């Protein structure tokens, strides 16, 4: 599929290598846009999350659904407006897939790069959970070298927080 054609979301249960490759292509399209077009990023991923999708990653509280996606990424996009990601490799799992993503952007005039591996659980053609695994050190070091960015990020995260219950990744796997 062409990257110019918007995709409605991942196909129903990535059960074949072709379907899994389509999900990865869709994921890649969303991160290629990244923070450079936030509206499109949130439409792309938000429309394909279950309302209760569990979103887990280091340095963040556990969040849920499209609203949680915004709470997770809006503060980061504000301090790194050029943040984008590039799929490095991927693998199918029994309940979804793993995607290795190289993220890069500019924070306070300095380039920041880190790699993450996302485990995505699919329910039908929607994402029921995303658990991101990454070493937060490169991001923490970049933030600590830019105190104004840390203050801005913390304020944005505190103002956007609405979570009242901490969901678990196992909750999404059981559904």
Any overview of this molecule?
This protein has 175 residues and is of the alpha+beta class. It has helices spanning 17-33, 38-46, 65-79, 137-144, 147-160, 169-174; strands at 49-56, 63-64, 84-93, 96-107, 110-123, 126-134. The protein has a 6-stranded mixed beta sheet with strand order 2-1-6-5-4-3. The two termini are 31 Å apart. Mean pLDDT is 81; it is low at 1-8 and 162-166.
Q: Please state the structural category.
A: alpha+beta
CATH fold group: Nuclear Transport Factor 2, Chain: A
CATH class: Alpha Beta
β-sheet strand percentage: 25-35%
What's the pLDDT, averaged over the residues? 81
- Uncertain segments are 1-8, 162-166
Largest sheet: 6 strands, mixed
Compute the number of helices.
6
Shape: globular
Tell me the span between the first and last alpha carbons: 31 Å
CATH architecture: Roll
Strand-and-helix sequence, N→C?
A: HHEEHEEEEHHH
Number of domains: 1
Strand line-up of the largest beta sheet: 2-1-6-5-4-3
The count of DSSP E runs of length 2 or more, i.e. the number of strands, is 6
Cα Rg? 16 Å
Helix content: 25-40%
Task: Please supply descriptive tags for the structure shown above.
175 residues, alpha+beta, Nuclear Transport Factor 2, Chain: A, six-stranded mixed β-sheet, 6 helices, globular, disordered N terminus
């Amino acid at each position: 599929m062409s990257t110019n054609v918007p995709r409605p979301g991942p196909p129903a249960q990535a059960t074949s290598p072709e379907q899994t490759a389509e999900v990865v292509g869709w994921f890649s399209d969303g991160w290629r846009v990244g923070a450079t077009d936030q509206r499109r990023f949130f439409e792309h991923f938000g429309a394909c999350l279950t309302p209760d999708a569990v979103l887990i990653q280091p340095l963040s509280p556990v969040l849920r659904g499209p609203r949680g996606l915004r709470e997770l990424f809006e503060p980061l996009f504000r301090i790194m407006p050029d943040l984008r990601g590039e799929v490095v490799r991927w693998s199918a799992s029994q309940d979804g897939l793993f995607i290795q993503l190289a993220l890069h952007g500019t924070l306070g005039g300095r380039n920041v790069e880190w790699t993450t591996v996302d485990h995505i659980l699919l329910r039908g053609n929607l994402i029921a959970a995303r658990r991101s695994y990454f070493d937060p050190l490169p991001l923490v070091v970049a933030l600590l070298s830019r105190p104004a960015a840390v203050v801005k990020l913390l304020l944005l995260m505190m103002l956007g927080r609405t979570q009242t219950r901490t969901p678990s990744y196992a909750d999404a796997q059981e559904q």
